[in-house]
């Protein structure tokens, strides 16, 4: 086993490479796998997970269940062994069902954590590989870039303007400049180890390479985490609210059950029978499966989101999704395909065209339809050369890796026949969103000359350029020429082209960083297109139907953004009044901007600071805002938004950490799919509550009404527990995974302050429970008068409840639409659960073996028909009540 080096900051790189038996080209894939087995995964120890046995036993950690077990034990002691055994078996079945629900929920959540796990880029066998961060091993070469979260402790091998935020680690608020060339004394304190980068910190600027010297719990962060105890996972706000509701229902049910039991004792029933009956009634009334069903509904729904390429990092985000009123989205890669292709180049007053699409390097440079030799056009040559070399994209194993804009520029240079290997990069000033440009210094290997190459937005480059090139001559850059360049930029932007500007300067030696971006020679523009994704137009339309506004916030040119916005239906018509630029934003007060926000749907040339301002103003206006982002500087806006959405492909690790949801495909349509799933999950929880509570309350109403009318005991304790098992289990779970309602994305967003128990839902629960009781109480009375047998009338009522549960389940599939406006059989799991309920009821009623244990008797075909018809007929008044309630509670 290769030993981890102590004090790596005090060793030379040669010593470290030797100790860790690796090199700058990285480990072999086989050696990395071997080391993963040796050192273990690069992750911190998690708190011990609850064992299946503990999870199963936890199902019985309920006061009512505990009392029921005591009651069953007393029944056994007084000689009623059959009743005791049946009660224990039903309680055990409820426990198994609850265990399955929680086990599935835990498994789904574990899978989600795996999907949302961070990634790292390492060099192995000389190739850049993107791998899960947990697979990084000592001896790996870690690639660091702005926005990345450092995956392990590394000794820096290379650092170019590298600055790292170590605030979470050292408390230092200012990013630390790193220097790979340093060798420090062993006693150097952690905050001063400038030749190291530590796991859990964030790259703010520049880039670098690091030799991994510690992973997992051996990292400095891991040593700190090892001292801390595991923190119990927080419940979601929804689960907390429902837990409170469950407790209130529990208290209410116990009071009702106690009063009912007291009535029974006064009327001559034995205290043991009434005690058992009262506890059973309380157990049936309290939706003890509620937390498990909610967790399962959330986890299963979130798993469905993952299949639709939206990875939810935090379950509370699901609740907020249904309330989203505004989606602020980036353009490139989210609304568009992210397959940039340079189509036009303007250099030296000439407009050139480039053939070919996508990332294919086949194509020609044309002027007036004829191919040109770029070496006969120095301004064209320099424009393409800057795009080729002032660029972090690369071609590796026939595949382009990097930012799509940079890949497009690289492809354009390769189409022109330029060779990037003929130059060597010797210095750089990385791109940042405030400067809106990037610069490099390169040395031409053939003749040793140095060139400064800069690319960026037109506004950014004109401010640092003093001359421009036309053919092979250099002229002063005056106001007239700047206006001509701006007009050409606008003309290209009108064609929905993204325009970038390019400048250069030849120097005798490598200048200091402060001297690089000054007195440059403007050489040309490149216009590229990124076509809209075909599925986005429909997604935007769906948003508008759902009452969700879409706002495009992009760094692109206003006219380009407006063209795309018009094409996708984000703006209703092609008018400049619908776009605001960064400069205009800065001249508006918050009040003025709030007014503009009501009409403007496209914001162009904006920085991340503007994104943050827009989010805050929208929230102040009462909106629930979803915001997309991918860069380091997007993190504040992502955190400030109600739902932060990071790009999974182009997004930096910082953006992913700050977000609630990660889009695995960077596609706007996936955001809309996630909103739909979020609404579906919340809708399904309400369906479950409508079904369960209206049905459980109807049981109490029937039983209490029976007592008040002086009737015999309508149901025994075993009947109540059986109904609880078959109705609170399979059908409730099936409603938790119900398909989306047809009108789901045509409703306005749910108010964020609105809980599960809306006035409409409470009214429906009350109406349905009374209606069920109204239908079933006469069944018991008629059954008794027809047979003069208590056990027969109990069996009829018992069966009537199960049949009624079927009708209530189908009616509960929508609290908005009548049953004839949606396909009632669309939920296959509900159909299967109904078959299970009916089949099991037939079995326990008609089979003599079960009659003895479940206190039932066989009933005739006539009664089966009456009960089925009654349940079917219940649907019509229930749907009429639904329509009336919908009119009063919209």
TrEMBL record:
Topological type in the membrane:
Multi-pass membrane protein
Q: Which InterPro entries match?
A: ATPase_P-typ_cation-transptr_C, ATPase_P-typ_cation-transptr_N, ATPase_P-typ_cyto_dom_N, ATPase_P-typ_P_site, ATPase_P-typ_TM_dom_sf, ATPase_P-typ_transduc_dom_A_sf, ATPase_P-type_domA, Cation_transp_ATPase_P-type
Biological processes, Gene Ontology terms: export from cell; inorganic cation transmembrane transport
Record's keyword terms, sorted: ATP-binding, Cell membrane, Membrane, Metal-binding, Nucleotide-binding, Translocase, Transmembrane, Transmembrane helix
Record's NCBIfam families? ATPase_P-type
Q: Which SUPFAM superfamilies does the UniProt record give? A: Calcium ATPase, transduction domain A, Calcium ATPase, transmembrane domain M, HAD-like, Metal cation-transporting ATPase, ATP-binding domain N
Q: Which GO terms describe its cellular component?
A: plasma membrane
Presence of keyword Glycoprotein: no
Q: Which family does it belong to?
A: Belongs to the cation transport ATPase (P-type) (TC 3.A.3) family. Type IIA subfamily.
Signal peptide interval: none
> What Gene Ontology molecular-function terms does this entry list?
ATP binding; ATP hydrolysis activity; ATPase-coupled monoatomic cation transmembrane transporter activity; metal ion binding; metal ion transmembrane transporter activity; P-type ion transporter activity
Instruction: Return the protein name.
Output: ATPase, P-type (Transporting), HAD superfamily, subfamily IC
Keyword Cell inner membrane part of the UniProt annotation: no
Q: Which PROSITE patterns match?
A: ATPASE_E1_E2
Show the stretches that span the lipid bilayer.
55-78, 84-100, 248-268, 274-300, 688-708, 720-741, 761-784, 790-811, 832-851, 863-881
What is the organism field in this record? Thermodesulfatator indicus (strain DSM 15286 / JCM 11887 / CIR29812)
């Amino acid at each position: 086993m290769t030993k981890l080096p102590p004090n790596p900051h005090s060793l030379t790189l040669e010593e470290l490479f030797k100790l860790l038996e690796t090199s700058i080209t990285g480990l072999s894939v086989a050696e990395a796998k071997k080391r993963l087995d040796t050192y273990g995964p690069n992750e911190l120890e998690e708190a011990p997970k609850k064992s299946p046995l503990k999870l199963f036993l936890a199902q019985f950690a309920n006061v009512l269940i505990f009392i029921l077990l005591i009651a069953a034990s007393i029944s056994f002691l007084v000689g009623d062994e059959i009743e005791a055994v049946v009660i224990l078996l039903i309680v055990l079945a409820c426990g198994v069902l609850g265990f399955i629900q929680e086990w599935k929920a835990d498994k789904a959540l574990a899978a989600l954590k795996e999907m949302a796990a961070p990634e790292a880029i390492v060099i192995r066998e000389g190739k850049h590989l993107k791998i899960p961060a947990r697979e990084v091993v000592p001896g790996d070469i870690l690639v660091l870039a702005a926005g990345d979260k450092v995956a392990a402790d590394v000794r820096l091998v290379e650092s170019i303007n590298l600055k790292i935020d170590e605030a979470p680690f050292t408390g230092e608020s200012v990013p630390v400049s790193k220097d790979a060339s340093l060798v420090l004394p062993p006693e150097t304190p952690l905050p001063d180890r400038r030749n190291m980068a530590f796991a859990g910190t964030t790259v703010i600027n520049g880039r670098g390479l690091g030799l991994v010297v510690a992973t997992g719990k051996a990292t400095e962060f891991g040593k700190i985490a090892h001292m801390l105890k595991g923190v119990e996972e927080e419940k979601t706000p929804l689960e907390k609210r429902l837990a409170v509701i469950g407790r209130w229902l529990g208290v209410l049910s116990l009071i009702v059950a106690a009063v009912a039991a007291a009535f029974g004792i006064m009327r001559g029933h034995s205290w043991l029978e009434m005690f058992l009956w009262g506890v059973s009634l309380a157990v049936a009334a309290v939706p003890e499966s509620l937390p498990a069903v909610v967790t399962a509904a959330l986890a299963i729904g979130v798993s469905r989101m993952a299949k639709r390429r939206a990875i939810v990092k935090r379950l509370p985000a699901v609740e907020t999704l249904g309330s989203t009123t505004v989606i602020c989205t980036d353009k490139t890669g989210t609304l568009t395909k992210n397959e940039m292709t340079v189509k036009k180049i303007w250099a030296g007053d000439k407009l050139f065209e480039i053939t070919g699409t996508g990332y294919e390097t086949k194509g020609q440079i044309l002027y007036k339809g004829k191919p040109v030799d770029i070496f006969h056009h120095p301004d064209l040559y320099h424009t393409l050369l800057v795009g080729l070399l002032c660029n972090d994209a690369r071609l590796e194993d026939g595949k382009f890796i990097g930012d799509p804009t940079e890949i497009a520029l690289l492809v354009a240079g390769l189409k022109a026949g330029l060779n990037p290997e003929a130059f060597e990069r010797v210095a750089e000033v990385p791109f940042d969103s405030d400067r809106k440009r990037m610069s490099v210094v390169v040395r031409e290997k053939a003749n040793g000359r140095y060139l400064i190459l800069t690319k960026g937005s037109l506004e950014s480059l004109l401010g640092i350029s003093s001359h421009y090139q036309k053919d092979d001559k250099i002229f002063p850059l005056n106001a007239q020429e700047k206006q001509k360049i701006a007009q050409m930029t606008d003309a290209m932007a009108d064609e929905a082209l993204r325009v970038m500007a390019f400048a250069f300067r030849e120097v005798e030696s490598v200048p200091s960083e402060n001297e690089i971006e000054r007195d440059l020679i403007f050489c040309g523009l490149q216009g590229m297109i990124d076509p809209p994704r075909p599925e986005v137009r429909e997604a935007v339309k769906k948003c508008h139907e759902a009452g969700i506004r879409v706002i495009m916030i992009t760094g692109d040119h206003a006219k380009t953004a407006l063209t795309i916005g018009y094409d996708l239906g984000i703006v209703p018509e092609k008018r400049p009044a619908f776009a605001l630029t960064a400069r205009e934003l800065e001249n508006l007060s918050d009040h003025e901007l709030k007014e503009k926000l009501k009409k403007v749907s496209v914001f162009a040339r904006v920085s991340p600071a503007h994104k943050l301002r827009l989010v805050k103003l929208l929230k102040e206006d009462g909106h629930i805002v979803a915001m997309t982002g991918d860069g380091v500087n997007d993190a504040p806006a992502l955190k400030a938004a109600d739902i932060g959405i990071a790009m999974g492909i182009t997004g930096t690790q910082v953006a992913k950490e700050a977000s609630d949801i990660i889009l695995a495909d960077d596609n706007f349509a996936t955001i809309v799919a996630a909103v739909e799933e979020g609404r579906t999950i919340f809708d399904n929880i309400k369906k479950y509550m409508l079904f369960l509570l209206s049905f459980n309350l109807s049981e109490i109403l029937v039983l209490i009404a029976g007592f008040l009318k002086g009737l015999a005991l309508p149901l025994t304790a075993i009947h109540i527990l059986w109904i609880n098992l078959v109705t609170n289990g399979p059908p409730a779970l099936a409603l938790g995974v119900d398909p989306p309602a047809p009108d789901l994305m045509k409703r306005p967003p749910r108010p964020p302050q609105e809980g599960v128990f809306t006035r409409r839902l409470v009214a429906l629960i009350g109406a349905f429970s009374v209606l069920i009781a109204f239908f079933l109480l006469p069944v018991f009375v008629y059954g008794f008068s027809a047979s003069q047998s208590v056990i027969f009338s109990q069996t009829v009522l018992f069966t009537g409840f199960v049949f009624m549960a079927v009708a209530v389940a189908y009616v509960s599939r929508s609290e908005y639409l009548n049953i004839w406006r949606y396909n009632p059989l669309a939920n296959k799991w509900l159909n299967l659960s109904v078959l299970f309920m009916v089949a099991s009821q037939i079995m326990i009623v008609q089979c003599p073996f079960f009659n003895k244990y479940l206190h039932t008797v066989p009933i005739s075909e006539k009664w089966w028909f009456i009960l089925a018809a009654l349940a079917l007929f219940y649907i019509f008044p229930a749907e009429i009540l639904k329509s009336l309630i919908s009119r009063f509670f919209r």
